[in-house]
Design goal:
It is found in: Cell inner membrane; Cell membrane. With 397 residues, the protein is mainly alpha-helical. It is built from 16 helices and no strands. It has a single domain, classed as Growth Hormone, Chain: A (Up-down Bundle).
Length: 397
């Protein structure tokens, strides 16, 4: 497959996860009222989505290494489609929780297959460029999704959001059937638990993987954790309507989109690795800005300004760090992508759960997100020390 086709298919497969998260967030306060339940119960639907998304990645990668990328994509997208239909007709919050868990499991296959396909076909700076293109296309989905969710909620009610998700699932299945080619070479063999466990142990013993993945976990995990806080801060404390909330989230996604556009020509001039440092500084600065919420009453600018700065930094961090994390594993790209996804989503799950335990979303936003920025900085310092000791992974490739 050509780089252009891989970029387009990879972006679609990757986008289904964050789109399914962000299109749903404007409806969370409305679902509290519709089911006459608590905010904690509805937040749990998002937490379970994160949990399913994180844990299923550990299965999706090895399955795709053993059985092929296409069959596993069909399997996980079928789970996603069926779960969307269950959520559409959910009679209560308990069924909705189960459906969101299954949706997370299904969506996990998309992001893993996308990264594994890139690793199958490309390496080094070429891989970083493909991942950057995926990021540019990907950012359009989460940018539009909250706005679309708010409009669907206002015009047709919250169940229309899940009908839209079901349609997205069918579209991904169709694109996979028509345009995606198998990229795993060699004979197929069933997955073996012992071999999978040994592969994961090998991955976790690789320092280059650990440092690069922890940088991603601190940066992207903060973004995922924010999704559990922002609807209640911006709609309950700041007073935005669901449609205004959706439009306001364009500051986050638009900032990431702008960073991806800026990063592309810079990677050609200075290399992807050199963009990570400025990106980490942006993540740290955004987190530091959110600490002001502990002292000032939240407003749209005080919340979304730092969020936009962090999102810009993530656009610089992701291409090089994903390439660096997966570079040592040419024969286990699916497993490496799985473990990387599990760690980054798991960090968002843990951070979001800690924030939920605090009760006050403003307090959580002002403490948990800055802590994630600190983790990102410390991991990057460890990554730089590793590079000085061994040489850049891209140069080794």
């Amino acid at each position: 497959m050509s780089p252009r086709r891989v970029s387009a298919i990879g972006a679609l497969l990757t986008a289904i996860g964050p789109v399914s998260m962000s299109i749903y967030t404007p409806a969370m306060p409305e679902i509290v009222r519709a089911f006459d339940t608590t905010e904690a119960a509805v937040k749990m639907t998002l937490t379970l989505y994160f949990g399913g998304f994180a844990c299923a990645q550990l299965i999706a990668g090895p399955l795709s290494d053993a059985l092929g990328r296409r069959p596993v994509t069909f399997l996980f997208m079928a789970i996603y489609f069926a779960a969307s239909l269950v959520a559409l007709w959910a009679p209560g919050v308990g069924v909705l929780m189960a459906a969101r868990l299954a949706q997370g499991i299904g969506a996990a296959g998309g992001v893993i297959i996308a990264r594994a396909v890139v690793r199958d076909l490309f390496s080094g700076e070429e891989s970083s460029k493909i991942l950057n293109v995926i990021g540019i296309i990907l950012s359009a989905g989460p940018a539009i999704a909250p706005t679309l969710g708010g409009l669907l909620l206002t015009g047709f009610g919250w169940r229309s959001i899940f009908a839209t998700m079901a349609g997205i699932g069918l579209m991904v299945i169709g694109v996979t059937a028509v345009f995606m080619r198998e990229t795993v070479r060699g004979p197929r063999r069933g997955p073996r638990l012992g071999a999978i466990a040994r592969t994961y142990l090998e991955i976790l013993r690789e320092p280059r993987f650990l440092t690069a993945t922890t940088v991603i976990a601190g940066a992207l995990g903060a973004l995922y954790a924010q999704a559990t806080f922002l609807p209640f801060i911006l709609m309950h404390r700041v007073g935005l309507t669901p449609a205004e909330f959706g439009l306001g989230m364009l500051m986050q996604s638009g900032s990431y989109f702008a960073a991806s556009l800026v990063a592309r020509p810079l990677m050609a001039r200075v290399g992807a690795e050199r963009l990570v440092g400025p990106g980490v500084l942006c993540c740290a600065a955004g987190g530091l800005g959110l600490t002001l919420l502990l002292f000032w009453e939240p407003s749209f600018a005080r919340v979304m300004g730092p969020v936009a700065i962090s999102a810009f930094g993530i656009g610089f961090v992701m291409p090089a760090m994903m390439t660096a994390a997966m570079a040592p594993f040419p024969k286990a790209g699916g497993a490496a992508a799985s473990m990387m996804g599990f760690i980054q989503m798991g960090s968002g799950l843990v951070a979001g759960s800690l924030g939920a335990m605090m009760g006050d979303p403003v307090l959580a936003m002002g403490t948990v997100i800055p802590a994630m920025g600190l983790i990102c900085c410390l991991a990057y310092l460890a990554h730089r020390r590793r590079l000085r000791a061994e040489g850049p992974p891209l140069a080794r490739r």
